[in-house]
TrEMBL record:
It comes from the Bacteria. This is 4Fe-4S dicluster domain-containing protein. It holds the Pfam family Fer4_7. It comes from Acididesulfobacter guangdongensis. The keyword Repressor does not apply.
Length: 99
């Protein structure tokens, strides 16, 4: 189940919020994760309000993995704290149609 289930038309009507400056805040959802560049520092795990990332045991080390990309809230907190210059690739949503 995705947080987007049940939405139709332009989802901006539901989740766009005004900023103090007057501009609109629009979420950017996670669509890919660059595992090759990731140093598994865990910063994304600590800041992600949706719990998208987890540590997994890979034998001799712990690595960051995506547990559920559909839980992304689009706040870009993971990208903001990543020391590898945005190894998380985020994408502005497109209008969704009910499936």
């Amino acid at each position: 189940m995705s947080i987007m289930d049940g939405f139709s038309g332009n989802i901006e009507e539901y989740i766009v919020a005004p900023r103090k400056s007057g501009s609109k805040w629009v979420p950017h959802f996670l669509v890919a994760f660059d595992q090759e560049s990731c140093i598994s520092c865990g910063r994304c795990i600590k800041v992600c309000p949706g719990g998208v990332y987890v540590f997994e045991d890979e034998g001799d080390k712990m690595v960051v993995r995506i547990e559920n990309m559909d839980d992304c809230l689009g706040d870009m907190s993971c990208e903001k704290v990543c020391p590898k210059n945005k190894t998380m690739h985020l994408h502005k949503f497109e209008p969704l149609q009910k499936q």
